[in-house]
User: What shape does this take?
Amino acid sequence: MRKSLPLAVEVAGQDGTSHCPGERVGSMANNYLLIDFENVQPESIALLDELDFTILLFVGAHQTKIPLALATQLQQLGERARYIRIEGNGPNALDFHIAFTIGELARVDSEGYLHIISRDTGFDPLIRYAR
Assistant: This one.
């Protein structure tokens, strides 16, 4: 599931199509893509190469492998991509890190769009509150 803040929620369908009312992808606003790699492992991010996205890939403490194709694509983005490795364990530890990062990004870039890629529905209340 893909979710966007602050003004819209984007939901990706099973066929990969998505809809986000008011979304400004590719415009002057910064776009941040936060990927919950514990429950969503994209095979490719090649479609984002020409768009101006900053990608944050959140990796769990016990995750030791990232597919080479994905790692190569992320590295080609240079400073526009970061791995965020979670040190601790526990229920929702990675989700709390994503939620904290959402707050930090909203604080420093209130005009930016935050896109959350996750199958975790626990972000829904946060998005409703942030709107």
Notes: Residues 106 and 112 are 7 Å apart (CA to CA).
